[in-house]
Write a structure and sequence with these properties.
The chain is mostly loops. The protein is 14% helix and 11% strand. The strands form 3 sheets. The chain has a two-stranded antiparallel ribbon with strand order 1-2. Strand 3 and strand 4 form a beta hairpin. The model is unreliable at 12-31 and 138-142 (pLDDT under 50).
């Protein structure tokens, strides 16, 4: 029992140290269990994919309506906008659809010539709600 307590204290110290340096925190136990719980949205200049593990999406995945003042409005569990919002995405940039190009890293700054709210020649091919679900709905701002 004494070793269990020492191990538990060591685990707490280790978690606290890693939490101080983390951009996002993932909590999960076991293999084949439920998806990890992510404590906060990843900091991604061009937005993040609306499904776990919430990796940063590349420039051009989200249409300009997904940004306000150059800041991503959120998607998936961190979307808190209008429940009737629907915005364009270009799923050619989705890794689940076979995209194998470069992906930005968490915290990476935008390239000077790439403004997420003004994606040059954006051609969305799918409408999604704020939770990431495909919808045929009308596009609305949050």
């Amino acid at each position: 029992m004494r070793y269990l307590r020492v191990f538990a204290v060591f685990g707490l110290v280790l978690c606290a140290a890693s939490f101080a340096h983390a951009q996002r925190v993932v909590v999960g136990v076991g293999v084949g269990g439920p998806a990890p719980i992510v404590a906060g949205p990843p900091v991604c200049t061009y937005g993040y994919y609306p499904y776990a593990p919430y990796g940063c999406a590349p420039y051009g995945y989200y249409g300009p309506e997904w940004f306000s003042g150059g800041t991503f409005i959120g998607a998936g569990p961190w979307y808190h906008g209008d429940q009737h919002f629907a915005g364009n995405v270009d799923n050619h940039y989705d890794v689940h659809q076979g995209y194998k190009g470069p992906l930005p890293k968490v915290g990476e700054k935008a390239a000077p010539d790439k403004h997420p709210e003004k994606v040059a020649n954006f051609h969305g091919n799918e409408m999604r709600d704020g939770r990431g679900h495909v919808t045929g709905g009308e596009q609305k701002r949050s």
